[in-house]
């Protein structure tokens, strides 16, 4: 099922690139899945990591995910999917609030997703400096700091994982 999810995600994100780069978007879900696989051997959770952005960023529907990958994978994906009709601040606030009561599986998925994003941001931040924030919809570095640090505070139960430790170290490096 993991191979099927990887192929599905690759087709869904075909032609898309990471913000401000020439890196194919599929690199992000693949990296997210690798991070999850280090923390859990749950095949459905790894599939959800591969598929975590398909509803949010492509034409894929929740129903299509249910049909192709089952109820649990679809529910895990939807638990992390943001409502793009809302503002950046509303979406990020909703994510932070949701993590206060989220399942451990959801927290693992969010950690992997945000760690992948933060790795990319940190790499480019060290190359570009504060100019990097111009590539995002939210251009205020302090808002990104609020979000990433807020995520870290709510990933209770994951502190023992190297991925969590890397995440918090990168938060300190990028945001102080």
Keywords:
176 residues, mainly alpha, Hypothetical protein af1432, 10 helices, 0% strand
Number of helices: 10
Structural class: mainly alpha
Shape label: globular
Secondary-structure element order, as H and E? HHHHHHHHHH
Report the CATH architecture.
Answer: Orthogonal Bundle
Mean pLDDT: 97
Strand content: under 5%
Total strand segments: 0
CATH class: Mainly Alpha
Distance between the termini: 40 Å
The CATH superfamily is: Hypothetical protein af1432
Helical residue percent?
55-70%
**Overall structural domain count:** 1
Task: Look up the CATH topology.
Answer: Hypothetical protein af1432
Rg value? 15 Å
Largest sheet: none
Protein name: Phosphohydrolase
Organism: Lacrimispora algidixylanolytica
Keywords: Hydrolase
GO molecular function, one term: guanosine-3',5'-bis(diphosphate) 3'-diphosphatase activity
Explain the layout of strands and helices.
Blueprint: H1 2-12, H2 27-39, H3 43-51, H4 54-57, H5 62-69, H6 71-80, H7 88-99, H8 104-128, H9 141-154, H10 162-175
Helix pairs in contact: 1-3, 2-3, 2-8, 3-6, 3-8, 5-6, 7-9, 8-10, 9-10
């Amino acid at each position: 099922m993991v191979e099927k999810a990887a192929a599905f995600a690759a087709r869904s994100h075909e032609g898309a690139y990471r913000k401000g780069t020439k890196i194919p978007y599929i690199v992000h879900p693949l990296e997210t899945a690798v991070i999850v696989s280090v923390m859990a051997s749950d095949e459905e959770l790894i599939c959800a990591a591969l598929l975590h952005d398909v509803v949010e960023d492509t034409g894929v529907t929740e129903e299509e995910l249910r049909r192709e990958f089952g109820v649990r994978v679809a529910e895990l994906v939807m638990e992390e999917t943001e409502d793009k009709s809302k503002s950046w601040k509303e979406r990020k606030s909703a994510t932070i609030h949701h993590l206060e009561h989220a399942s451990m599986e959801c927290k693992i998925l969010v950690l992997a997703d945000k760690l992948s994003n933060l790795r990319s941001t940190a790499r480019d931040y060290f190359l570009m400096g504060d100019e990097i924030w111009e590539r995002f919809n939210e251009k205020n570095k302090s808002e990104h700091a609020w979000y990433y640090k807020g995520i870290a505070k709510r990933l209770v139960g994951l502190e023992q994982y190297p991925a969590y430790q890397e995440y918090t170290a990168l938060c300190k490096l990028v945001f102080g």
